Amino acid sequence: MKDRINHMKYLPGMEVLEDSTIMSKVITAMNNYDYNTYTAKDVKRALCADNRTIEDFAALLSPAAYPFLEEMAQAAQTETRKHFGNSIYMFTPLYIANYCENYCIYCGFNCHNKIKRAKLNIDEIEKEMQAISETGLQEILLLTGESPKMSDVHYIGEACKMARKYFKVVGLEVYPMNSEDYKYLHECGADFVTVFQETYNSDKYETLHLAGNKRIFPYRLNAQERALKGGMRGVGFGALLGLDDFHKDAFATGYHAYLLQKEYPHAEIAVSCPRLRPIINNKEINPKDVSESKLLQIICAYRIFLPYASITVSTRENANFRDHVMAITGTKISAGVAVGVGGHEDEEKGDEQFEISDSRNVKEVYDALIKNGLQPVMSDYIYV
Amino acid sequence: MKNTTDKLILGGHEFTSRFILGSGKYSLELIKAAVQNADAQIITLALRRANSGSTANIMDYIPSNVTLLPNTSGARNADEAVRIARLAREIGYGDFVKIEIMRDTKYLLPDNFETIKATEILAKEGFVVMPYMYPDLNVARDLQNAGAACVMPLGAPIGSNKGLCTKDFTQIIIDEIDLPVIVDAGIGRPSQACEAMEMGAAAVMANTAIATAGDVPAMAEAFKKAIKAGRTAYLSGLGRIKENGAAASSPLTGFLQD
User: Fold this and answer.
1) Cβ contact (<8 Å) for A379 and B55?
2) According to a count of CB atoms within 10 Å of the terminal CB, is the N or C end of chain A lower?
3) pLDDT digit string (tens) for A109-137?
4) CA A184/CA A117 separation, integer angstroms
5) Could B54 and A136 be called an inter-chain contact, meaning their C-beta atoms sit closer than 8 Å?
6) Is there a contact between B205 and B185 (Cβ–Cβ < 8 Å)?
7) Are strands B152-153 and B13-15 parallel, antiparallel or unpaired?
8) What Å distances lie between residue A66 and A285, A292, A303, CA to CA?
9) Closest chain B CA to residue A373
């Protein structure tokens, strides 16, 4: 389509990090990553190493590591226990709006998908938060569709202020913004920002994100760095595995997180591991491209390479997979999840972004963790 | 020397146990048994964990007869550590505080400079300040001058279970500083805790080594015994140990005739 805008060129008003070299390092390393060249010897060396290098990470993500999945799981579990013990942090997402100006062909919220749109007002937000806090949860993740017009920074800020009344930790999963906006939202009470890059292959990215600010690849990729410059305590990363070559996307995700922690040593790092799920009005995507085994290989590689990172396993996965992965390498789990707008206190007011597989409530997930020998933790942060 | 008179004194408070137990990283139900098996009189907890509402609140599981040692983990500078310490006191966790200030989420190494600043402020406010530090003699002296109740040099990075990687530097601090030296972090097995005590450490703090053991209460007991053995060995005066080779049978000074 000729009328699509250049996805590599910043739009007016988008902050450019002139001095940042992180994107070029990630993209160069990803392009050079030839995963078929790794051997069983490389994988064994990576598993035996004390501090794993980027080359070790590359080996662990390669097809050569696939026969070593059990060894990888054992190594990943050891690292998880060393850094986090058996603690698992619990949270839930709250979608406060689903208006979206982006046209992402795989997403249920995209602006051309005819779904029910909604935006909670502050009273409705408070009611939802009250209902969530009564479950015992102390951490909330606020989400919107990506519409700076319908869900402006001020609106999100008011939601953050309200969230701080009920929760100890407030995370954000909203559209990428400039560092001064992140600074404002941090002052309003948010301290964690997650942005999914979806795919690090800019050519593929361009074919999936046809319109809206999200189309601008570098602006999205540098969102975490802008969030840290704005004072956020931590940032989350994630590629939507299955959109493109998952070996390369997983490699880029881990390396991106690694480089940012190196540049900002105080930053807390989180990695999410979603893979494609079926969405409303689109039956063509095949979610089996990334099998459970391959997903586990990726998650274990993340853990072994980034032992200090928080790892979340999505409700897109079923309860059996989630419970087992939490016991190996996860540190954070959502519960009582609704992916439509609202839905915790009252009926959903807007349609859902995707289908979830694990619909257990907070108590059910809590009990499953205990049964699994894990310790649910509601909050591990204190604002001072 | 009999153990009944051998006391660990921190900020005027006396303890007979020299094992400080961590409370994180393992199931809450096991805390009580771990404390009992360890004979621990001091238990650390992260205030960020303790201040955690009604569901799975760690405070509900800590026996009331142990001294709480809230730590300031999560603090990235002296100001944040000071605020966390004050909050801990306000909500009734006592006057003890373990200062942990990290600006690095990967290795969790302590920031000595900020730790000195926080120690100075909190000691003046009457806290029993127990600073977690990287074993640097100059810093240990500054902490002493700032009013610390002890110094807590790390053996190895938190959670690493690598043991006394900093052995020689910790020994220098033990030899030179007139405060209790409590080896904290990185102790992975009872034998390493024992070694630290043989060196003259006043106490050992451990968490991950116990939390990641197959049987948490049993490992707490093993540490207790090792720490007692090491302390007794230290008080007994270790026998002569040759570091390199045996004693020469033909001494260099054998030619002397006077």
Assistant:
1) no
2) N
3) 777 777 788 889 999 999 999 999 999 89
4) 26
5) yes
6) yes
7) unpaired
8) 24, 12, 16
9) B27
The amino acid present at A216, given as its one-letter code, is I
Residue located via tokens 């390479």: A305
For residue B245, give every residue at least 6 positions away whose Cβ sits within 8 Å of its Cβ, in sequence order, or none: none
As a dihedral over the C-alpha atoms of residue B132, residue B133, residue B138, residue B141, rounded to 10 degrees, the angle is: 10
Task: Give this prediction's pTM.
Answer: 0.86
Task: Measure Cα distances from B21 to B42, B62, B66, B70 in Å.
Answer: 7, 11, 10, 12
Q: Find chain B residues with C-beta within 8 A of A378's C-beta.
A: 52-53, 55-57
Contact between A329 and A78 (Cβ < 8 Å): no
Residue A342: phi, psi to the nearest 5?
70, -145
Give the phi and the psi of residue A309 in degrees, each rounded to 5.
-80, 145
Distance between A162 CA and the closest CA of chain B, angstroms? 18
B→A interface, C-beta within 8 Å: 24-28, 46-49, 51-57, 74-76, 80, 83-84, 87, 102-106, 108, 159-161, 208, 211-212
Q: Residue A58 has which token pair?
A: 């590359």
A244-249: long-range contacts, CB 8 A cutoff, minimum separation 24: A244/A199, A244/A201, A244/A204, A245/A201, A246/A275, A246/A289, A246/A290, A246/A294, A246/A298, A247/A33, A247/A35, A247/A61, A247/A62, A247/A63, A248/A30, A248/A33, A248/A35, A248/A200, A248/A201, A249/A199, A249/A200, A249/A201
**Among candidates A83, A136, A375 on the partner chain, residue whose Cβ is nearest the Cβ of B159:** A83
Mean pLDDT of successive 10-residue stretches along chain A, which has 384 residues: 81 93 96 96 93 95 96 94 91 89 80 82 93 92 89 95 94 96 96 95 89 90 97 95 92 97 94 76 59 92 96 84 90 83 72 72 90 89 79
Tokens representing A94? 């709250």
Residue A84 at interface with chain B, using a CB cutoff of 8 Å: yes
Is B98 among the residues known to form the active site?
Answer: yes
B51–A308 CB contact, under 8 Å? no
**Separation between Cα atoms, residue B118 and residue B95, nearest integer Å:** 15
Q: Is A140 on the interface with B (CB under 8 A)?
A: no
Q: Do B105 and A86 touch (CB under 8 A)?
A: no
> What is the Cα Rg of chain A in Å?
20
